[in-house]
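Input set for joint prediction.
Command: fold jointly, output tokens.
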Amino acid sequence: MAEVALLDVSKSFGAVEAVRGLSLSIADGEFVVLLGPTGAGKTTTLRLIAGLERPDRGDVVIQGRVVTDEVPAERDVAFVFQQYSLYPHLTVYDNLAFPLRSPARRMDETTVRRRVQQVAELLHIEQKLGNRATALSGGEMQRVAIGRALVREPALYLMDEPLSSLDAKLRAELRLELKRIQRELGTTILYVTHDQIEAMTMADRIGVMNEGVLIQLGTPREVYERPSSAYVASRLGTPSINLIPAELLGAGSVPPNVRTVGLRTEHIRISSADRPGPLARVHWVEHLGDQNHVHLRLDEHSLVTLADPVQELRAGDQVSLEFTEPLYFDQAGNRVGADGLRGHA
Amino acid sequence: MAEIRIETVAKTFGAFAAVKGVNFTVDHGSFLVILGPSGCGKTTTLRMIAGLELPSAGRILLDGEDVTALPASARDIAFVFQLFALYPHMNVRQNIGFPLRCQNYPRAEIRRSVEEAARLLRIDHLLDRRVGGLSGGDRQRVALGRAIVRRPKAFLMDEPLGALDSEFRRLMCGELRELHDRIDATTVYITHDQLEAMAMADRIVIMNQGRVEQIGTPQEIYDRPNTMFVADFIGAPPMSFLGVHTSLQRGDRRIRIGGAAVEMPEVFEDRSEGKFAIGVRPENVSFADASPLRGQVIGAEYLGTTQIVTVMTAHGQVKARLPSGNAVRVGESVGLTLRPDRISLFDAVSGQALSSALHDGGYRG
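tokens >
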């Protein structure tokens, strides 16, 4: 049974349609990530589930119960915001213990202490338990905020970019931790981010959103390898997919209705200029550490691809390109197969 | 433009030493990024350069002139915070010209400076538009315009892109660097995001607990980290370490680890028996059935083009970046090979890199 479902939900603010006809169901124990740019409707979706907004149309179902008309407190969800306000007069320990001490959930202090201790260790803040919340760095405060949701065991966690204000390093660590915790505890999480790495590495399924619409929903591999549109393709992958006009590949090599060809790093093979294939020039090699990007010029189009560590390329080099199984997109930007038809792929 | 010299600068707040004797020079027209985790002292360092904090010790020189005790307003340095705040009731021209109007510049000069700044940022066609209707990117450009319009000697930027979407941040990184090249402005930029640092910096200063760990070009810092801290801080995922207990002799080109002999760059120093760490980056690890260096796959993170596979060995955890087409099963036993010319060797106690054909000395902070 689906833990949480949104049934054709819409929400407008004045003239802005924040969420348009969104249907989504999340299974028990599933980690779903909504990925999209600012203003895509991700946060509104979370707020609709939490009960902080009321939908104009459609229903919200949690554990088989229609909760559309229920207040947030009745919904058994925990919300982790991007910016969390802690109780400044309380210690870290008391902030973490707070949700467990609410009258609705009376718990004996031994259990409270054990839970707080566990969560503090998980988030590497066990040294700070005695500190005032105001004496913490921003990163530590956010960890306490996440911890405050984790001490409870609600039906669903809603997380709104909880890692975005943290150090890159800590973010990468917490990403793995959060995924591990989720797997071990079997919790159900709906997580919102604009960071594709977070989406790819944590999600069981990714929902790509733009302008209030859920465009594609699937496992990270499905969404990456079989994007429904050029837009979705451009949301995932580093370096970003190269979108070039179909004419560049030469007449007859692509179905006639294909307007744009999508080339990811793994679709581009670079070899010496005496090999057959379109000729390109190496514009520059950008050293980003683990990722070295080769910027190529093919006619007046730029292509960016990952440098092969063993292939020594230098600016100015002439190279031959081979394209293997590129992605095809029609006039509207929808992906089509090698036969020019939609919907199989 | 200007050269900035930081000479043994320290800053204490009560009992807390935020910056503990830092030295570095920002060359004329160069782009220097100070990178480090929160609390490493990078913001305090920047604020001392700006004149917003007074150093407890040391000197700051701007073009050879000692400015340590000068207030911020006397330093001719522009400080750029998160590039967000625009005045919504003003148009683009008024927003960019605001700093000059505050200083009562003549009207004609304001006009000329604003138009030049707008041209540099390629927003001259937007000058008479309201900022409310602009795209996110154009708003950022207007905010930048306000910083460059005064043509200061140097720019100090405190995580200006921190609040942006990751994709947009990457785009703005490119633009910032391009802008820097066009106006040739000495820039000190602080961030905790290594990708920003790698993408923009001429040189990176890595700070940790108030000290400089390493100074170098992005490539130097990535390929030849001086310390285990740097090796671990840079790279996503960071360098993996395999622990070994052994002794080393000048000229050694391989090191024994369990039943395997790992080839590595020639070692330039003699070391008695002790704890060492072999450091290897994920892209320099591959799988080879026959290798005696073995481990068990404990996880794989799918990233699209590549995947990061984590392998637990008897000597520590190793991460490998492999094509995502390679089928990897959690639980299976695999053999590992490490690219010999890319191996770092560290003293596991001090954390310092040993001198070798790869690590031939360099800055020690």
